[in-house]
Amino acid sequence: MFITVLAIILILIVIFQIAKASEYVSVLKGEDRAFKQNNKINGALMIAFLILGLIGVFWCNHELYPKTLFPQGSSSVEGENVDKLLKITILLTGIVFFATQILLFWFSYKYQYKEEKKIHFFSHSSKLELIWTAIPTIVLAILIVYGLRSWFLFTGDAPKNAIQIEVTGHQFGWTFRYPGKDGVFGKKYFKDINATNELGLIWKDSAELSQKADPATFDDIIMGGTVYLIKDKPVRFIINSQDVIHDVGLPQFRMKMDAVPGTPTTLWFTPKYTTEEMKKRTGNPNFVYELSCDQLCGVGHWSMRAVINVVTQAEYDAFMAKQKPAYYSAFPAKDPDNIKAAAAVSDSSKPVKVASPADTTKK
Ligand SMILES: [Cu+2]
After folding, report:
1. Are the C-beta atoms of 282 and 67 separated by less than 8 Å?
2. What is the domain partition of the chain in residue ranges?
3. What is the 76 CA–ligand 1 centroid distance (Å)?
4. 161 C-alpha to ligand 1 centroid (Å)
5. Is the Cβ–Cβ distance between 74 and 272 less than 8 Å?
6. C-alpha 299 – ligand 1 centre gap (Å)
7. What is the CATH topology of the domain spanning 163-331?
């Protein structure tokens, strides 16, 4: 650190000394000669800067492109459109970038001051203005229309067979809710939020809040940290926030949506590969799909990360069969398993009927 700062200071001193020396030289040589010589040096530097700059562009691209998620391809079917759009945009802006940068520096060199050169002056050209207005307008309009089509696709109605998951952001973490066997998300109310009921599901009758318990909440499954999705099956996220604006960022799926307090947002997509398949595709045995908060939301923003586990339908069914509705964690006395166990203890004098394997696999 110290050496770097020292080097920068020394370089600045050297530049200052050179500038001072060249000032004395120009006084000795005469203003006119110095002016012409400076012009030449600046012209040559423009070309050097152009070449070094372009080498830098290629070098950065060569070094950094493999580290991006681009070469991996989209992990969702709908995200392929996003990649395609991004490629077209990079190609178009790339062409404009190279054309303008080359012309900018080349012209600075070529049209440097020379006594014998005459300036061509014109105040206005309608034709030129029409060209440089119309072409970008048409190109951008096409890009926007194409982009909006993708946007309306994955923010619009999800296919009928899509699984529904509610995603709730809060400072600082994500909570996921599955609707349970009835396929209906039970109602919630913010005044019901407490330590055991983090989403405020309406589990109990309340005269004070003048509401009746919603039976649809009883089978809702809640999880934090990791969410499970099925390969090749569309999933629809219904996104909420309990405090400030967060953002559901799904880089591998090429999806992203704000979590806005009081205004649910949605998006849907179809995962293409399971997490296990992605481990092989990326050659990374620790690969996980990531859900990161893409909206700076406070001091713990960096920690707002959840893991998405994409599995096969069979693995998903097996996992879901093991999940208990959040209602039973809050009210263990209502849990059928606990009721059964309690009954078995009180009936211990009678022989207990053991369920055969055929019974347990039956749905
Ligand atoms: Cu956040």
Report:
1. no
2. 37-112+127-155, 163-331
3. 23
4. 30
5. yes
6. 10
7. Immunoglobulin-like (2.60.40)
Spacing, Cα 224 to ligand 1 middle (Å):
14
302 alpha carbon – ligand 1 mean position (Å): 8
The edge-to-edge listing of strands for the beta sheet with 305-311 is 226-230, 305-311, 289-293, 246-250, 255-259
| Token code pair at residue 329 | 């964690």
CA of 295 to the centre of ligand 1 (A): 6
Most confident of 34-38, 120-124, 147-151: 147-151
User: Taking 90 as the threshold, does the pLDDT of residue 54 lie above it?
Assistant: yes
Residue 193 CA to residue 187 CA, distance in Å, equals 12
Output the CA 296–ligand 1 centroid distance in Å.
6
- d(C-alpha 181, C-alpha 327), whole Å: 13
pLDDT single digits (tens) 139-195: 999 999 999 998 999 999 989 889 999 999 999 999 999 988 888 888 888 888 888
Give pLDDT, residue 182: 83
Which of 96, 120, 100 lies closest to 108, judged by CA? 100
Q: Whole-angstrom Cα distance, residue 86 to residue 294?
A: 19
**Selection from 319, 321, 289, 318 nearest residue 305 by Cα:** 289
Neighbouring residues of 160: CB distance < 8 A, sequence distance ≥ 6 = none
